[in-house]
Amino acid sequence: MSGTKVSTLALGTALFGVAPTEDAAATLVHFAIESGINVIDTANSYGNQARFDRPQGPTWKHRRSAEEIVGDAIEGLREDIILATKVSEPIGDGPNDGGFTGGGLSRTHIMRNIERSLDRLRTDYVDIYYAHHPDPLTDIEETLRTFADLVRQGVITHYALSTYDGWQVTEVMATAERLGLPKPICHQTRYSLAKRWVESEVLPATRRAGVGTVCFGPLAGGLLTESGTDREYAGDARWGGGRFTPAEIELNRRLTKLGAEWNLAPAQIALSWLLAQPGVSSAVVGPETVDELTELLPAMQLTLTSEQLAVLDGISPKPANLYTQ
């Protein structure tokens, strides 16, 4: 345990420059901090990439990166927040520019890109530096030794993992133990009432290892909100993917009905359920406006009853191969 205190909701910035627009992003960041959110979550691949383009907005070539927008927004507020960014996703076409299938956690790539991230964020250190995805092309020892060097240099305070399988988390922990190196502070994974596959292997592994879980996609791209299914950009369509299946639409209907019965917004229910799960430390939300964030904030103080949690478990069945030990 690190002793670092984080708010149960974190502000995600993947769409900064698109929704919210660059002009509106600072207002959203300041409102989040004033409302008790102390974690700003970004990445060196967020914002100005073609996958985030929308017809009505500027193309990726005419947008600044999310890190740059965040850097401007937190001016004068740096000591009030826990700043997290990530490395490994492709940020160019060069042979050492990272990638979804490997190469992004080499010492060469990490050392080049931490400096670029610090420059864009206008800070001299990052509180949490995520390995954005596993890298099958780079020896895990090289990656961990590089992170350890950055910790010793004071450039990062902690490193963390993102989108790792359970066995990969276990491998990192064992390797760090064997080499006498720092261990990851947390693991970030997709998890929500609609996406529960991590309960079968990932969450048991992280709990066993004593690694806290940070959840992205906690509202499943708007599915777990009252009107999210009606939005033009919802689900994975927010970054170039697909929308919702019939089963997911049915989950939205049932959650909305419960919200009416319990006098709670569906999004508040979904977030409270998630934060009640063992080992979950925080959920990264991606509101596009201050009004959207305002609707989510009550979840930070909301505690559902055991009966309500059981009802929610019933409308979204657990994985068939759930590990129960």
Q: Any key phrases for this structure?
A:
globular, TIM Barrel, 36% helix, NADP_OxRdtase_dom, eight-stranded parallel β-barrel, alpha/beta, 8 strands
Brief characterization of the structure:
With 325 residues, the protein is of the alpha/beta class.
What is the CATH superfamily label?
NADP-dependent oxidoreductase domain
Largest sheet: 8 strands, parallel, barrel
Q: Distance N terminus to C terminus?
A: 23 Å
The overall pLDDT average reads: 94
Computed over alpha carbons, the radius of gyration is 19 Å
* The CATH topology: TIM Barrel
Give me the count of strands.
8
SS-derived structural category = alpha/beta
Globally, the shape reads globular
CATH class wording:
Alpha Beta
Please indicate the count of domains.
Answer: 1
Our count of helices gives 10
Low-confidence stretches: none
At CATH level 2, the architecture is Alpha-Beta Barrel
Strand content: 5-15%
Q: SSE string, helix = H, strand = E?
A: EHEHEHEHEHEHEHHEHH
Keywords: Oxidoreductase, Plasmid
InterPro entries: AKR_Detox_Biosynth, NAD(P)_OxRdtase_dom_sf, NADP_OxRdtase_dom
Protein name: Dehydrogenase
GO molecular function: oxidoreductase activity
Write a structural description.
This protein has 325 residues and is α/β, with parallel strands linked by helices. The chain has a single domain, classed as Alpha-Beta Barrel (TIM Barrel). Helices cover 36% and strands 13% of the residues. It contains ten helices and eight strands. An eight-stranded parallel β-barrel has the order 1-2-3-4-5-6-7-8, surrounded by five helices. Strand 6, helix 6 and strand 7 form a beta-alpha-beta unit. Helix 1 crosses helix 2 and helix 5 packs parallel to helix 6. The protein is globular and about 55 Å long. The chain starts with 8 loop residues before the first strand and ends in a 10-residue tail after the last helix. The mean pLDDT is 94. This is Dehydrogenase. GO terms for molecular function: oxidoreductase activity. One of its GO terms (cellular component) is cytosol. Keywords: Oxidoreductase, Plasmid. It holds the Pfam family Aldo_ket_red.
